[in-house]
From TrEMBL:
Post-translational modification (record): Methylated by PrmC. Methylation increases the termination efficiency of RF2.
A GO CC annotation given for this chain: cytoplasm
Residues modified to N5-methylglutamine: Q251
PANTHER family linked to this entry: CLASS I PEPTIDE CHAIN RELEASE FACTOR (PTHR43116:SF3), PEPTIDE CHAIN RELEASE FACTOR 2 (PTHR43116)
Major location (coarse): cytoplasm
High-level lineage: Bacteria, Bacillati, Actinomycetota, Actinomycetes, Micrococcales
Function statement: Peptide chain release factor 2 directs the termination of translation in response to the peptide chain termination codons UGA and UAA.
Keywords annotated in UniProt: Coiled coil, Cytoplasm, Methylation, Protein biosynthesis
Molecular function via GO: translation release factor activity, codon specific
Domain Prokaryotic-type class I peptide chain release factors, first and last residues per copy: 244-260
Gene3D superfamilies named among the record's database cross-references: 3.30.160.20, 3.30.70.1660, Release factor
Protein name, per record: Peptide chain release factor 2
Family: Belongs to the prokaryotic/mitochondrial release factor family.
């Protein structure tokens, strides 16, 4: 006799999914998809490139949200059938498949439930993440590169579009800084809880004595602005430098001065872009990131929320929000939500959904307490 009573757990998932659907409103999403599909089929759409990109991106995001809802509903239906088949056939393999599917769907619905908590002004936007090495010398630059890989792997696992806008390599190992753009629904709202100082404790591979070292890296997350929200920046407020794109060890990856660095003189904000071969394209991308940061700064000043959205990140002792410990034991712990895991390899390989979800819930509780 197969012991497989999943009815109550499936019913609970259906109830949670019903609450999520009420918030995301699939009927409204379907109407939005139809509207955007009509806009995307206009013959002269691409005469205005910026508007065309906005329409196609919005359509892609709406279709993805609708597809996710439809797939979950179908998976719940299939799970009920699978569980019933396992009992009727008394097949332990089928029962184990049903248990695994229940676990998988529970995780998917949990992640989607977190998205319903993202109701901030900028939350639906794509995200621009900048990672900078902090205190700790060469270990810090190596740690910054580990974090860069972690976020790239996270985006890859979710099939999100990601672009590396700029990378500044350190002399010995790792990176001084890197900026990436992740284009997916609610990328900023999801990843904004990753902003802050990250701390690594390990036996240093760069120390001949093999001593334990502590290093830091800062992660900044800002929303990518809409083209219509672009902030006008006077030319005399910017210094634009062009230089030759380079890779690790200073090896040239381009034979022309196509990389662009823009310094906003009033604020000191510096943005670089070198992923495109054209100087014009790099300048446009760098300018858009600069405008995003200035827009966020302006909104923060208007609403007195500087710490909430981007924060003052110093990447040093007393400021960390998450610790990655590789020696003398292995553990990654978020110091705000208290979520932790001993599987450090999976975390550095991009498995950070649980940390993100815990961070969003922690932030939401803080908002509720402050209200």
């Amino acid at each position: 006799m197969i012991n497989l009573d999943l009815a109550s757990e499936i019913a609970a998932l259906r109830s949670t999914f019903g609450d999520i659907s009420a918030v995301l409103n699939p009927d409204k999403l379907r109407a939005k998809v139809v509207e955007l599909e009509a806009a995307a089929s206009v013959p002269d759409l691409w005469n205005d490139t910026e508007n065309a990109q906005k329409v196609t991106s919005a359509l892609s995001h709406a279709q993805a949200d609708l597809k996710r809802l439809d797939e979950i509903e179908q998976r719940l239906d299939d799970l009920e059938v699978l569980a019933q088949m396992a009992v009727e056939m008394e097949d332990e393999d089928t029962a184990e498949e049903a248990r695994a599917e229940l676990k998988s769907i529970t995780k998917v619905i949990g992640n989607l439930e977190v998205q319903t908590l993202l109701d901030g002004e900028f939350d639906p936007r794509p995200a621009v993440i900048t990672i900078r090495a902090g205190a700790g010398g060469v270990d810090a630059s190596d740690f910054a590169e580990m974090l860069l890989r972690m976020y790239l792997r996270w985006a890859e696992q979710h099939s999100y579009k990601v672009s590396v806008l700029d990378t500044s390599y350190a002399e010995q190992a790792g990176i001084k800084s890197a900026t990436i753009e992740i284009d997916s629904p609610y990328a900023f709202g999801t990843l904004s809880v990753e902003a802050g100082t990250h701390r690594l404790v390990r036996m240093s591979p760069f120390n001949s004595a093999g001593s334990r070292e502590t290093s830091f890296a800062a992660v900044e997350v800002v929303p990518l602005i809409e083209q219509t929200e672009s902030i006008e920046i006077p030319d005399n407020d910017m210094r634009v430098d062009v230089f030759r794109s380079s890779g690790p060890g200073g090896q040239s990856v381009n034979t022309t001065d196509s990389a662009v660095r823009i310094t906003h003189l009033p604020t000191g904000i510096v943005v670089s872009c070198q992923n495109e071969k054209s100087q014009i394209q790099n300048r446009a991308a760098a300018l858009r990131v600069l405008q995003s940061r200035l827009l966020l700064l302006r909104r923060e000043e208007e609403n007195a929320q500087k710490k909430e959205l981007a924060g003052n990140i110093t990447a040093s002792w007393g400021d960390q929000m998450r610790s990655y410990v590789l020696a003398p034991y292995k553990m990654v712990k978020d110091l705000r939500s208290q979520h932790e895991t001993g599987n450090t390899d999976k975390v550095f390989d991009g498995d950070i959904d649980a940390f993100i979800a815990a961070g969003i819930r922690w932030r939401k509780r803080g908002d509720a307490d402050a209200a």
